[in-house]
Design goal:
3-stranded parallel sheet; Rossmann fold; 16% strand; 14 helices; 8-stranded mixed sheet
Length: 384
């Protein structure tokens, strides 16, 4: 795998969290930023999503493009990715048609949806695969018909797609784990006194594998041992909760912290500690800046999350799709799994910068985050 690339810095957004595990099952959504500030190294991520991928720019002739998402447990796809993609495509190619489907975590269903898109004349298919390995045959099938494929969010390692658009997943893993290690050291927690639980994402998701690799890299230099780790099937929060419950019984006070690969699995871990009566909850990471995750950060139950608005990558995918449909070559910023790629850099959010990163940038409002049980936490953090 080649990971050398020029990274664009994004001003990143987030959604907000509900505490129940039922709501956590849907906790992967992200919010759209209203603006993105430039950085010293180049345009902001919001700008890059429209320009770095542009092969020719401007509007394009009408075509048919499929946008196939992996699951319905994550609310982000319906609330952010789909509308972000459709809005950008309408801007770039007003007469084009979008064939949208969601596989609800069923690889066989996604194969049927993919084949249906081919039958309906899709010229480009944007695919966020349920199963990254199984998706290789889908790419091959499309290429045999002259149809282009954009891997979206989750890469397809064994068979190169025509383009890949995502946040830098390996960097996400490194950021959340390093942030946790720095917090433990700042609090004087000795590596000899405890270790870390690692709650990874789905074993069939190549992006989860990249996050996992980043987590390992981030923890390696910290000195804290990994007590145990778990690959969470389908990113299901309740499965993460069940596993962490077992580890609480096994390791007890040896658990100094938890690196969870997203807000859903992090929320499941937090629920396990609370159910076991552990107070305070060991610092627990997250990713996606969901509504529930941000609120858990505000309350102090979750240590960090990652801000990465889905609309940024959705718009970049729409631009790349229009370029490919028009016979133009999208401009990559890196290469990953032998696939030309456009990767965006996310931002870590903790209590210290949540107001500046989320509220002040108008990604989420005070009303979004500070209702009910979270009002006191917002007041303490000077958010409201």
């Amino acid at each position: 795998m080649t990971t050398s690339h020029t990274r664009y810095r994004a001003t990143l957004g987030a959604s907000a969290l509900a505490c129940s595990v039922a709501l956590l099952a849907g906790a992967c959504s992200t919010n759209s930023p209203t603006q993105a500030a430039p950085t010293a190294s180049g345009p902001a991520s919001g700008a890059a999503s429209g320009t770095a991928a542009a092969g020719g720019g401007g509007t394009a002739g009408a075509t048919t493009i499929a946008f196939l998402m992996p699951d319905e447990a994550s609310t982000r796809y319906e609330q952010h990715d789909r509308p972000g993609f459709e809005a950008k495509l309408k801007e770039l190619s007003p007469g084009s048609k979008v064939l949208y489907n969601n596989a609800n975590a069923d690889a066989s269903k996604q194969q049927q949806q993919f084949n249906s898109a081919l039958t309906q004349g899709a010229k480009v298919i944007v695919l966020d695969p349920v199963d990254s390995a199984a998706a290789a045959s889908l790419v091959q099938s499309a290429h045999s018909r002259g149809v282009k494929v954009i891997a979206y969010d989750r890469p397809i390692p064994s068979t190169p797609a025509d383009f890949y658009v995502s946040y830098d997943n390996e960097r996400i893993g490194a950021l959340i784990s390093r942030s946790l290690v720095e917090d433990l050291k700042a609090k004087g927690v000795s590596p000899s006194s405890g270790g870390i639980l690692e709650v990874n994402g789905s074993p069939t998701d190549a992006a989860a594998g990249l996050i996992k690799k980043g987590i390992h890299e981030g923890l390696a230099a910290g000195g804290y041992k990994t007590l145990a780790e778990y690959d969470t099937p389908d990113w299901t929060p309740s499965k993460a909760q069940d596993w962490v419950s077992g580890q609480v019984s096994r390791f007890g006070k040896q658990i100094a912290g938890v690196v969870a690969a997203n807000d859903g699995t992090g929320g499941g871990a937090i629920a396990a500690f609370k159910a076991a009566g552990v107070t305070p909850v060991p610092p627990t990471t997250g990713n996606d800046a969901t509504t529930a995750g941000l609120q858990l950060v505000i309350s102090g139950d979750q240590f960090n999350t990652i801000s990465k608005p889905s609309e940024i990558v959705a718009a970049a995918a729409a631009q790349a799709a229009v370029d490919l449909a028009a016979g133009r070559t999208p401009k990559p910023t890196s290469t990953l799994f032998n696939t030309p790629s456009q990767l965006f850099t996310p931002a870590v959010v903790t209590q210290k910068n949540l107001k500046a990163e989320i509220v002040d940038k108008k990604i989420n409002t005070v009303a979004d985050l500070c209702s009910g049980a979270y009002a006191a936490g917002c007041t303490k953090l000077s958010i409201s």
